[in-house]
Amino acid sequence: MQALRALLADTMPEGLVGNVTGQSGIGADYMDAALDATDRTTVVTVVLVVVILLIIYRAPLAALAPLLTIGVAWVVARGVLGGWPRPGGR
After folding, report:
1. Which of 40, 56, 69, 79 is 20 to 30 A from 21 (CA-CA)?
2. How far is Cα 78 from Cα 56, in angstroms, rounded to an integer?
3. Do 49 and 67 meet the contact criterion of CB atoms below 8 Å apart?
4. What do you get for the CA distance between the two ends of the chain, in Å?
5. What CA–CA distance (Å, rounded) separates 90 from 88?
6. Quick one: CA torsion of 47, 52, 55, 56, rounded to 10 degrees?
7. 39, 43, 45, 50 alpha-carbon torsion, rounded to 10°
8. 61/2 Cα distance (integer angstroms)
9. What is the pTM of this model?
């Protein structure tokens, strides 16, 4: 979809705006919006968790212990799930 939009932008005459419509265009825009919203939610959640842990433990080192545990678990889980063999050998 990005290649189509780039081609459209490169070939449009000056002063005209082209848009991609249909299921493909809507689907691509929907996925972009969902990923953007997920990224924002993740950042806000991490900041809130850090603030809450600092309020509860009142010591930065003690607040980092649960965060490091969560981070290690996330990295391991992502590596395990990403390492499964895919059909077709890709």
Report:
1. 40
2. 29
3. yes
4. 21
5. 6
6. -140
7. 160
8. 44
9. 0.60
